[in-house]
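Record type: monomer structure entry
Structure origin: computed from sequence
Chain ID: A
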Amino acid sequence: MPKTDITIVGVGSIGAAIVQKWLEKGFTVTMWNRNPNRPWLKDLANSGAVLEHDLRAAVANSDAILLSVAAYSNITELFSCILPFEKASPQRPSSTSQREPLSKLVRWRLGLKPKALRKHSSIWLSGETEATFSRVSNIMSPLGKLHYVAEDPGAACLWDIAALAAMDGMLTGGLLAMNLLKHQRAVENAKSPSVENPIRKIVIPLLSSFLPFLGDIAAALDDEDWGRNFCNPVSMQLKGFETILEGLRQEKVSIEGLQLFHDLLLRTKREKGDDAGLALMGMYMLEE
């Protein structure tokens, strides 16, 4: 069997979208999936991809291998019987002295849903040198915008987790907002007021306008400028936030999801004074 441009290990919904995009761009692809009977695998094979049932053979069939799996444990489980390797994590980068000379470890993250592939997705890469990534960029670029982070394979993992943590924090606040909006009173003999309407008209635009401010706070954190408050000091933030909490209590909506932010505001005010900015809060959750 002739070698292909790339092998993908794990072909779920995202993996299938990746294979389809590669095929559209003219790449040859070998696929391996734990369950080889998924219906989309047959469709992809009919489109030109090679479905290999043996993992060793799949790995050997390409010089480039992409692991599209849900967790690190899946990687160690699948590959421990094939080759020894040291897992990369934010606190445990791979040892360059123990890596095989030809191995290139890529940590990547694909943004948004499979159907949004390439249009909105980003891929963050780290491990090896930037020159190495320039050689594989033609394979990865059809999937999204590439961002080279560092030689340490664990570095992109930090970017990945940071982005997902911020996203889930936004979802937490958004779901709390939806709970609050369910308290809208319905007009007699009419259906309940829409939750979607205010979310789309008010909440989402507000979140979008706030995002650049997050970058400003991060810049102040880099500079350790705890007094940079952007005309919105912690004392003002605290007063406004406590008004929000009181409104939630009155509507009998849990404030548990916002309690941490309140605690961080109080600590910043206590330690740095009324005019402090929020940047120091970017260090308060670090554990020793």
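Annotation 1: The chain has three domains: 1-83, 91-167, 182-282.
Annotation 2: The mean pLDDT is 84.
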